[in-house]
Amino acid sequence: MRKQLFIALSLSLAFLTACGPDTSIDQETQNQLIGKWELQKAYRNGEVAESLDELFFEFTEVGEMRTNILGSTTQADYLFEGEKIVQTSGDNGMEIAYDVAEITDTSLILTTTLRRYNFKFDLRRATTETE
User: Fold this and answer.
1) Containing domain of residue 40, as a range?
2) Parallel, antiparallel, or unpaired: how do β-strands 35-44 and 96-103 relate?
3) Could you report the per-residue pLDDT of 96-130, keeping only the tens digit for each?
4) Closest Cα to residue 52, out of 35, 67, 39, 65?
5) Positive or negative, the Cα torsion across 127, 130, 84, 123?
């Protein structure tokens, strides 16, 4: 009896896990990400971070990105891991994971932890390719 109960519980747990919500970034979101995004407002640990006023992210469809998050403009590859965009080691030698909190055709909100600071970036799609 215990063995049957254990099997039934195990199968139920496996079924519930398999049917849980898909938290990976879907193809539509991946397609929306392509292009250049310019900062509207940045937050560091909940406070406005004015030192990041010129921040931008640019994503290509071939998995490359440019950003100036660490000061100077660098290029790196990126990939999707679950619900994160992972900037792999590029010119700056750092791997940074960004959570997509929100995305539309014109706005993007990314969050990340970098050097023990929590960041939130409110970005808008660039209207012209200036950089």
Assistant:
1) 22-125
2) unpaired
3) 999 999 999 999 999 999 989 999 999 999 986 55
4) 39
5) negative
Type of residue at 38: E
Q: Compute the distance between CA of residue 26 and CA of residue 96 in angstroms, rounded to an integer.
A: 20
Q: What long-range pairs does 63-70 form, CB within 8 A, spacing at least 24? A: 65/90, 69/96, 69/114, 70/94
- pLDDT tens digits, one per residue of 79-99: 999 889 999 876 667 789 999
pTM: 0.76
CA 119, distance to chain mean position in Å, is 12
16, exposed or middle or buried, with CB in 10 Å at 0-12, 13-18, 19+?
exposed
Tokens linked to 23: 């938290």
* Beta bridge partner(s), residue 74: 67
118: domain CATH number?
Answer: 2.40.128.280
Number of domains in the chain: 1
